């Protein structure tokens, strides 16, 4: 963990706000992923305290990921980047600026490049009574400067992760089990991707996903550096 005041030029600062919510900062740009703050018992900040955003990235439409996305994107006129159907939902619900994408596609934004990669999870969108926004959940590889951050989204262990071997510096990986990978599969995922650093997420928010991140650290072993963050803590890479 590093103090952001000591961030070296060119590095990306990654701050965990609990659950699957991370803020990435680089070169004056700020991106939030899966901003579930309101109603998140482990969040260290309220949505209103999030500094001005350039983009809101959404891996899927469940409430613990969609969260405060639309109000934050509206507040800052930040672009919502999401799988096509979810981006359309956000636009229809008032987000002023959306950029629909889909699995396998990449796009260069002013803040960096975003690529959508496969994730195995449920596609329903919270608040959609029609079912017409049901989408395919994704993970993101976000490249800012020369740092490549892989947020897996909510997912099972999948062999597709092997396609990212050698292409990721920091992996943000669920370990809470029940809805996503648990510790054993998450450690195997780290073995597939071979990042420099892994940060566990999607654990401890609710009793059903309570787990011990130190057990994850032991399971990863020598495969890579494990940074166990607490909500509000950052690392730079
Ligand atoms: Zn989730």
Features:
7-stranded mixed sheet; disordered N terminus; 27% strand; alpha/beta; 237 residues; 17% helix; binds zinc ion
How would you describe this structure to a colleague?
- With 237 residues, the protein is α/β, with parallel strands linked by helices.
- Helix content is 17%, strand content 27%.
- The protein has helices spanning 63-66, 69-76, 84-92, 183-193, 213-220, and strands at residues 13-16, 22-26, 29-33, 55-57, 79-83, 98-101, 106-109, 112-118, 138-144, 147-151, 170-174, 197-201, 225-226, 234-236.
- The strands form 2 sheets. A 7-stranded mixed sheet has the order 6-5-4-3-2-1-14, with helices on one face.
- Helix 4 packs across helix 5 (213-220).
- The chain is globular.
- Mean pLDDT is 95; it is low at 1-6.
- Bound molecules: zinc ion.
- Zinc ion binds at residues 20, 62, 64-65, 154, 179, 202.
